[in-house]
């Protein structure tokens, strides 16, 4: 894949127009100032002879540039070029963003990806210009800068929450990345939502953003006790590897920002949580690129026009999403919510103090594999499938998030009794983040095709959908939103 950052003329035009569609897709190093910026930077545009383009912030820093203090490169949306891909480099970048290098080192990252450290370094340098250590270092610095700017957490807390191993490393890295000590950023009024373990962050995205459709979709499927959607805000409980707590995501009107409010018992998993929240609301998508493909189709064009910036809902917890997909096979949305709620009540851990409608954490694979699920209204085949899923996660290395090897995960899912093609495609779409996953046997899609007077056989739908690649998952979501009632979990 040729990166947009290698196309100098296109990048320079985007820079001159401050086009928000390109925000986060490349960064600009200005040789006369030694600063690197986002394409939307309000500073006066440098002449073409004095700019260099980079595919990621880490590459700009490796070339000797420091982050701009006006446009805040650390706050830009993530690059969508990797969302479509599930190859080695794309998976490595997602894992680095999650903080794996901080906890497991480059050796641990390479081992997880089943490659040598040398091969991993070579592939990353070829694609993005720098190796895993430089990428991890930049990610730590950017996370720290966000926390300094947007919270009143102590600098020591920020250093370790961002993944630094020591205060000395924190200070040296921030000086190199931004040209000043961390304390120099503490001039602005601190966030009113500060406090150790409780904070508010601003998540940026590329417009347009159809927040209303996204929240309506999540509200219809909100799992009682675990999720709640009200007053334009999505809330839920979360269980992470080293922490648990509650999050709230609230799109702000007339801005390109979603507020993320976090209340965790520790900040050990902060980077992972922020990434999963971005995935849930699909904040790294490029709506204009998706609309260009899908809007060219006569079936989808009216839907694309009616819902500019429609996002594909992801998942905070891939195991939870897979459980709910299995429960939702061939039942209504309301029926699936009822059954899933019974599992939460029977197997989930209650909050010490309910937080409004939020009362439980979703059951872990360990809890589900040991649970007696009889008497909850589930068929025996579903009970078998759910416990086989939990066993596969615990014993067979089944990965149900965007860091997965998609082909391997799909193969493993297909081997579990009671999981059919529809369920696999739905899990791939939402948990694995495959933008081209397409559940051909979905009843909602069939009804949408029939409403347009089109053949709705799996064969004809598959043939017609070829023109929608690589965005068939978005096409499916557009068709679902077009229906008056949901027919899927």
TrEMBL record:
Residue span(s) of domain HTH araC/xylS-type: 90-188
Classification via Pfam families: Ada_Zn_binding (PF02805), AlkA_N (PF06029), HhH-GPD (PF00730), HTH_18 (PF12833)
Top-level class of the enzyme under EC nomenclature: hydrolase
Cofactor(s), by name: Zn(2+)
InterPro entries per the UniProt record, alphabetical: Ada-like_dom_sf, Ada_DNA_repair_Zn-bd, AlkA_N, AlkA_N_sf, Alkylbase_DNA_Glycosylase/TA, DNA_glycosylase, HhH-GPD_domain, HhH_base_excis_C
Listed EC numbers: 3.2.2.21
This protein's GO CC annotations: cytoplasm; protein-DNA complex
SMART domains: AlkA_N, ENDO3c, HTH_ARAC
Gene Ontology biological process terms from the UniProt entry: base-excision repair, AP site formation; DNA alkylation repair; methylation
Keywords of this entry: Activator, DNA damage, DNA repair, Methyltransferase, Transcription, Transcription regulation, Transferase
Catalytic reaction equation(s): Hydrolysis of alkylated DNA, releasing 3-methyladenine, 3-methylguanine, 7-methylguanine and 7-methyladenine
A Gene Ontology molecular function term of the record: methyltransferase activity
Record CDD domains: ENDO3c
Identification of the protein by name: DNA-3-methyladenine glycosylase II
